[in-house]
Amino acid sequence: MGQAETGSAGDRKPDRNLDVSSEASLLVQGGSRHGEVIALFSEITTMGRQPDNDVVVDEPPVSRKHSAIVSTVNGYYIRDLGSTNGTFINRRRIFDDEFSLMHGDLVRMGGSDITFMFQFSGAKTVRISSVEPPLDALVVDAKARQVYVRGQRLDPALPRKEFDLLQLLNSRRGEAVSRDEIARHVWAERSDGDVGNHEIEQCVHRVRVRVEENTSKPEHLMTIRGFGYKLD
Questions:
Q1: Which tens digits make up the pLDDT trace of 44-54?
Q2: Which of 105, 99, 64, 92 is CA-nearest to residue 78?
Q3: Which long-range contacts (CB under 8 A, 24 or more apart) does 9-13 make?
Protein backbone atom coordinates (compact mmCIF):
# COMPACT_ATOMS: atom_id res chain seq x y z
CA MET A 1 0.00 0.00 0.00
CA GLY A 2 0.97 3.62 -0.30
CA GLN A 3 2.50 5.59 2.53
CA ALA A 4 0.67 8.28 4.51
CA GLU A 5 3.23 10.72 5.88
CA THR A 6 3.07 14.15 7.47
CA GLY A 7 5.36 17.14 7.75
CA SER A 8 7.09 19.79 5.73
CA ALA A 9 8.32 18.13 2.53
CA GLY A 10 7.00 14.84 3.94
CA ASP A 11 9.79 14.55 6.52
CA ARG A 12 7.71 14.32 9.71
CA LYS A 13 5.88 11.11 10.51
CA PRO A 14 3.51 10.62 13.45
CA ASP A 15 4.55 8.16 16.14
CA ARG A 16 2.25 5.26 16.96
CA ASN A 17 0.40 5.68 20.30
CA LEU A 18 0.94 9.43 19.98
CA ASP A 19 -0.75 11.76 22.52
CA VAL A 20 -2.22 14.61 20.52
CA SER A 21 -3.49 17.78 22.20
CA SER A 22 -5.27 19.38 19.27
CA GLU A 23 -8.84 20.26 18.48
CA ALA A 24 -8.81 18.25 15.26
CA SER A 25 -6.93 15.31 13.84
CA LEU A 26 -7.00 12.67 11.13
CA LEU A 27 -6.98 8.98 12.01
CA VAL A 28 -5.24 6.89 9.33
CA GLN A 29 -7.10 3.76 8.22
CA GLY A 30 -5.25 1.46 5.82
CA GLY A 31 -1.68 1.47 4.56
CA SER A 32 1.48 0.91 6.54
CA ARG A 33 0.60 3.66 9.07
CA HIS A 34 -2.86 2.31 9.89
CA GLY A 35 -4.11 3.44 13.30
CA GLU A 36 -1.96 6.55 13.63
CA VAL A 37 -3.14 10.10 14.34
CA ILE A 38 -2.20 13.26 12.42
CA ALA A 39 -2.85 16.45 14.40
CA LEU A 40 -4.22 19.42 12.43
CA PHE A 41 -2.35 22.40 13.85
CA SER A 42 -2.15 24.56 10.70
CA GLU A 43 -4.81 26.86 9.29
CA ILE A 44 -4.48 25.00 5.98
CA THR A 45 -3.42 21.34 5.74
CA THR A 46 -2.67 20.22 2.19
CA MET A 47 -3.02 16.58 1.12
CA GLY A 48 -1.68 14.84 -1.97
CA ARG A 49 1.04 12.76 -3.62
CA GLN A 50 3.64 15.53 -3.93
CA PRO A 51 6.20 15.43 -1.07
CA ASP A 52 5.75 19.09 -0.08
CA ASN A 53 2.18 18.45 1.12
CA ASP A 54 1.44 18.39 4.84
CA VAL A 55 -0.11 14.93 4.43
CA VAL A 56 1.56 12.84 1.73
CA VAL A 57 -0.28 9.84 0.24
CA ASP A 58 2.00 8.17 -2.28
CA GLU A 59 -0.58 6.28 -4.34
CA PRO A 60 -1.35 6.48 -8.10
CA PRO A 61 -5.02 7.62 -7.77
CA VAL A 62 -3.96 10.63 -5.66
CA SER A 63 -3.14 13.90 -7.42
CA ARG A 64 0.02 15.87 -6.65
CA LYS A 65 -2.06 18.55 -4.92
CA HIS A 66 -5.30 16.75 -4.18
CA SER A 67 -7.22 18.47 -1.37
CA ALA A 68 -6.87 20.78 1.61
CA ILE A 69 -8.42 20.97 5.07
CA VAL A 70 -9.04 24.53 6.24
CA SER A 71 -9.53 25.67 9.83
CA THR A 72 -11.91 28.63 10.30
CA VAL A 73 -13.74 30.27 13.20
CA ASN A 74 -16.83 28.35 12.09
CA GLY A 75 -15.17 24.92 12.02
CA TYR A 76 -13.19 22.78 9.61
CA TYR A 77 -13.76 22.54 5.86
CA ILE A 78 -12.25 20.47 3.08
CA ARG A 79 -11.63 21.60 -0.50
CA ASP A 80 -10.86 19.53 -3.56
CA LEU A 81 -7.94 21.18 -5.37
CA GLY A 82 -9.00 20.18 -8.87
CA SER A 83 -7.90 16.56 -8.42
CA THR A 84 -8.23 14.05 -11.25
CA ASN A 85 -10.04 11.34 -9.29
CA GLY A 86 -11.98 13.44 -6.80
CA THR A 87 -12.24 13.79 -3.02
CA PHE A 88 -14.81 11.64 -1.24
CA ILE A 89 -16.49 12.20 2.13
CA ASN A 90 -18.26 9.13 3.48
CA ARG A 91 -18.06 7.51 0.00
CA ARG A 92 -19.69 10.51 -1.74
CA ARG A 93 -17.71 12.77 -4.05
CA ILE A 94 -17.71 16.43 -3.06
CA PHE A 95 -18.04 19.25 -5.54
CA ASP A 96 -18.48 22.24 -3.22
CA ASP A 97 -15.68 24.78 -2.92
CA GLU A 98 -15.74 24.19 0.84
CA PHE A 99 -17.39 21.13 2.36
CA SER A 100 -17.95 21.23 6.13
CA LEU A 101 -16.26 18.40 8.05
CA MET A 102 -17.98 16.75 10.99
CA HIS A 103 -16.51 14.48 13.65
CA GLY A 104 -16.36 10.91 12.29
CA ASP A 105 -16.38 11.85 8.59
CA LEU A 106 -14.30 9.54 6.38
CA VAL A 107 -12.03 11.27 3.84
CA ARG A 108 -10.68 9.41 0.80
CA MET A 109 -8.70 10.76 -2.14
CA GLY A 110 -9.71 9.12 -5.42
CA GLY A 111 -9.43 5.34 -5.30
CA SER A 112 -6.67 5.35 -2.68
CA ASP A 113 -6.49 2.40 -0.28
CA ILE A 114 -5.99 4.86 2.60
CA THR A 115 -8.89 6.54 4.41
CA PHE A 116 -8.65 9.36 6.96
CA MET A 117 -11.24 9.69 9.73
CA PHE A 118 -11.71 13.33 10.74
CA GLN A 119 -11.85 13.73 14.51
CA PHE A 120 -12.81 16.88 16.39
CA SER A 121 -11.84 16.36 19.99
CA GLY A 122 -12.44 19.80 21.44
CA ALA A 123 -8.81 20.00 22.67
CA LYS A 124 -9.09 16.65 24.45
CA THR A 125 -6.17 14.23 24.43
CA VAL A 126 -6.50 11.49 21.83
CA ARG A 127 -4.66 8.20 22.15
CA ILE A 128 -5.01 5.74 19.29
CA SER A 129 -3.04 2.52 19.02
CA SER A 130 -5.00 0.43 16.58
CA VAL A 131 -8.35 0.79 14.84
CA GLU A 132 -10.09 -1.87 12.81
CA PRO A 133 -11.84 -0.98 9.54
CA PRO A 134 -15.59 -0.30 9.88
CA LEU A 135 -17.48 -3.59 10.04
CA ASP A 136 -19.59 -2.75 6.99
CA ALA A 137 -16.60 -1.58 4.92
CA LEU A 138 -15.48 -3.08 1.63
CA VAL A 139 -11.75 -2.41 1.34
CA VAL A 140 -9.76 -3.18 -1.82
CA ASP A 141 -5.98 -3.40 -1.40
CA ALA A 142 -4.83 -2.91 -4.99
CA LYS A 143 -1.14 -3.62 -4.43
CA ALA A 144 -1.61 -6.79 -2.36
CA ARG A 145 -4.63 -7.79 -4.49
CA GLN A 146 -6.63 -8.51 -1.36
CA VAL A 147 -10.22 -7.64 -0.45
CA TYR A 148 -11.55 -7.08 3.07
CA VAL A 149 -15.28 -7.33 3.83
CA ARG A 150 -16.55 -6.29 7.28
CA GLY A 151 -12.98 -6.40 8.54
CA GLN A 152 -12.27 -9.93 7.27
CA ARG A 153 -9.96 -10.76 4.37
CA LEU A 154 -11.55 -12.81 1.61
CA ASP A 155 -10.05 -16.29 1.63
CA PRO A 156 -9.53 -17.63 -0.96
CA ALA A 157 -8.68 -14.40 -2.77
CA LEU A 158 -10.77 -13.30 -5.74
CA PRO A 159 -9.69 -14.75 -9.11
CA ARG A 160 -7.90 -12.35 -11.45
CA LYS A 161 -10.83 -11.08 -13.52
CA GLU A 162 -13.15 -10.70 -10.55
CA PHE A 163 -10.47 -8.71 -8.72
CA ASP A 164 -9.72 -6.60 -11.81
CA LEU A 165 -13.42 -5.72 -12.03
CA LEU A 166 -13.63 -4.79 -8.35
CA GLN A 167 -10.38 -2.81 -8.51
CA LEU A 168 -11.64 -0.77 -11.48
CA LEU A 169 -14.90 0.08 -9.71
CA ASN A 170 -13.00 0.91 -6.51
CA SER A 171 -10.71 3.32 -8.40
CA ARG A 172 -13.86 5.17 -9.51
CA ARG A 173 -15.78 4.67 -6.28
CA GLY A 174 -19.16 6.38 -6.27
CA GLU A 175 -19.13 6.84 -10.05
CA ALA A 176 -20.95 4.79 -12.68
CA VAL A 177 -18.58 2.81 -14.91
CA SER A 178 -19.87 1.71 -18.32
CA ARG A 179 -19.92 -1.89 -19.54
CA ASP A 180 -17.66 -0.87 -22.43
CA GLU A 181 -15.01 0.43 -20.02
CA ILE A 182 -15.31 -2.69 -17.87
CA ALA A 183 -14.84 -4.87 -20.96
CA ARG A 184 -11.71 -2.96 -22.04
CA HIS A 185 -10.18 -3.12 -18.56
CA VAL A 186 -11.06 -6.63 -17.40
CA TRP A 187 -10.71 -8.36 -20.79
CA ALA A 188 -7.79 -6.29 -22.07
CA GLU A 189 -6.40 -9.32 -23.93
CA ARG A 190 -9.35 -9.17 -26.36
CA SER A 191 -8.22 -6.45 -28.70
CA ASP A 192 -11.44 -6.71 -30.71
CA GLY A 193 -13.50 -5.82 -27.61
CA ASP A 194 -15.72 -8.84 -28.12
CA VAL A 195 -17.13 -9.16 -24.59
CA GLY A 196 -20.82 -9.86 -24.19
CA ASN A 197 -23.06 -8.31 -21.53
CA HIS A 198 -23.80 -11.80 -20.21
CA GLU A 199 -20.11 -12.41 -19.57
CA ILE A 200 -19.82 -9.14 -17.65
CA GLU A 201 -23.00 -9.91 -15.67
CA GLN A 202 -21.64 -13.31 -14.67
CA CYS A 203 -18.39 -11.74 -13.48
CA VAL A 204 -20.34 -9.17 -11.44
CA HIS A 205 -22.48 -11.94 -9.96
CA ARG A 206 -19.41 -13.91 -8.86
CA VAL A 207 -18.03 -10.82 -7.13
CA ARG A 208 -21.35 -10.16 -5.40
CA VAL A 209 -21.49 -13.71 -4.08
CA ARG A 210 -18.20 -13.02 -2.29
CA VAL A 211 -18.73 -9.46 -1.01
CA GLU A 212 -22.48 -9.06 -0.44
CA GLU A 213 -24.54 -10.55 2.39
CA ASN A 214 -27.59 -10.64 0.11
CA THR A 215 -26.88 -10.67 -3.64
CA SER A 216 -30.49 -9.73 -4.44
CA LYS A 217 -30.13 -6.57 -2.32
CA PRO A 218 -26.50 -5.48 -2.82
CA GLU A 219 -25.06 -2.77 -0.57
CA HIS A 220 -21.75 -2.27 -2.37
CA LEU A 221 -21.76 -3.34 -6.04
CA MET A 222 -24.71 -1.57 -7.65
CA THR A 223 -26.21 -1.98 -11.13
CA ILE A 224 -26.81 1.16 -13.21
CA ARG A 225 -29.48 -0.06 -15.58
CA GLY A 226 -28.74 0.39 -19.26
CA PHE A 227 -25.21 1.61 -18.55
CA GLY A 228 -22.99 -0.38 -16.18
CA TYR A 229 -22.08 -0.63 -12.50
CA LYS A 230 -20.71 1.37 -9.58
CA LEU A 231 -19.19 0.65 -6.17
CA ASP A 232 -20.68 2.45 -3.16
A1: 999 999 999 99
A2: 99
A3: 9/51, 9/52, 10/51, 10/52, 10/53, 10/56
